[in-house]
Design a protein that fits this description.
about 250 residues; alpha/beta; Arc Repressor Mutant, subunit A; Rossmann fold; 2 domains; 5-stranded parallel beta sheet; two-stranded antiparallel ribbon; 13 helices; 9 strands; about 55% helix; Phosphosugar-binding transcriptional regulator; Homeodomain-like_sf; transcription regulation; transcription; WH-like_DNA-bd_sf
Length: about 250
C-alpha cells in the first residue's frame, strides 16, 4: 500500500499540527533535507520532539519514522519518474487517483446514494462538467438528481436541503469560494455531504461527512485554472459502475 493509500485511510487520525508537520515533510522543496535527516535532526527542524514524529507515523500505520521517511522518498522518486517534462502524465494521474479510492469509503457513498431522496451536485468552473454527466447517469438509474453551479442559486438550494438529501460538493482545490460557501450552509442542515477534491487538506473536505480525493497536476493558463478533471470523472464513473448493479 502506497503513501497516498495510507493517508486516505488514516489522515483523519491526525491533529492539525501533525498535518502541518506531514505537509512540511512531503513538500518537494524539503525533500533533500528529509532524505538526509535523522529523526532527531528532523524533529529539531520542525521544533517538535522525536516522539511526536513517531506517533504521527504510527497513526498513519507505519512502524516509525524510518518507514514513513521511506514511503515519502518512494513517492517522490515515483513522481519524478512519472513526470513528462514538468507535468505528471494524465494516465498516471488516473492511476494515482485509483490508489486514493478506499473500498470502505465507496461502500458508504453507495449506501448514502441508495438512501437519498434527492442527490445534488454543487460545483463550478470546469469541475461542473463531470458532475453534469453523473447527474444524467443517476437519472437513468431512477434517482432524482440536480446540478447547481451558479453562486446565488447554489446558496439558496443549500439552505433548503432536507434530512434525506445528499450533496456532492466538487472542487479540485477544495477552496473555491462558491462551493465552499454552499458546503458551509449544507452543514447547517440535516443533509449528508460528500466531497470530491484534489488530494490535500482543504476546507471542503474538512467539513464533509465523507471525503473522496483525486490526484491532479495543477495547470494554469492566462491565470485561469485549466487543470485536468479526469480524476473527478474517474471517481464519479467508478461510483456509477459500482452503483448500477445495485439498482
Amino acid at each position: 500500500m502506497g503513501l497516498f493509500s495510507h493517508l486516505q485511510a488514516n489522515q483523519h487520525l491526525l491533529n492539525e499540527q501533525e498535518l502541518i508537520h506531514l505537509n512540511n515533510m512531503m513538500d518537494k522543496e524539503n525533500f533533500s533535507l528529509l532524505k538526509n535527516s535523522t529523526l532527531k535532526e528532523l524533529a529539531d527542524r520542525l521544533y517538535v520532539s522525536p516522539n511526536t514524529i513517531v506517533r504521527m507515523a504510527k497513526k498513519l500505520d507505519y512502524r516509525g519514522y524510518t518507514e514513513l521517511k521511506l514511503a515519502i522518498e518512494t513517492e517522490h522518486n515515483k513522481s519524478s519518474f512519472l513526470k513528462k517534462g514538468n507535468r505528471l502524465k494524465l494516465i498516471d494521474q488516473m492511476n494515482r487517483t485509483e490508489e486514493l479510492l478506499s473500498s470502505s469509503t465507496v461502500k458508504e457513498v453507495l449506501r448514502l446514494i441508495l438512501a437519498a431522496n434527492h442527490i445534488y451536485f454543487f460545483s463550478c468552473g470546469p469541475s461542473k462538467f463531470p458532475c453534469e454527466e453523473m447527474k444524467e447517469k443517476l437519472r437513468i438509474l431512477g434517482f432524482e438528481s440536480s446540478l447547481y453551479y451558479e453562486p446565488h442559486v447554489m446558496r439558496q438550494r443549500a439552505k433548503k436541503l432536507k434530512e434525506n438529501d445528499l450533496v456532492f460538493v466538487v472542487s479540485l482545490s477544495g477552496e473555491t469560494k462558491t462551493p465552499l460557501d454552499a458546503a458551509r450552509l449544507v452543514k447547517l442542515t440535516k443533509a449528508k455531504m460528500i466531497s470530491i477534491t484534489g488530494f490535500s487538506q482543504n476546507s471542503i473536505s474538512q467539513i464533509a461527512d465523507v471525503t473522496m480525493y483525486t490526484f491532479y497536476d495543477k495547470l494554469t493558463y492566462a491565470d485561469m485554472d485549466v487543470s485536468s478533471r479526469l480524476g473527478i470523472y474517474y471517481v464519479l464513473n467508478y461510483i456509477f459502475e459500482e452503483l448500477a448493479p445495485l439498482c
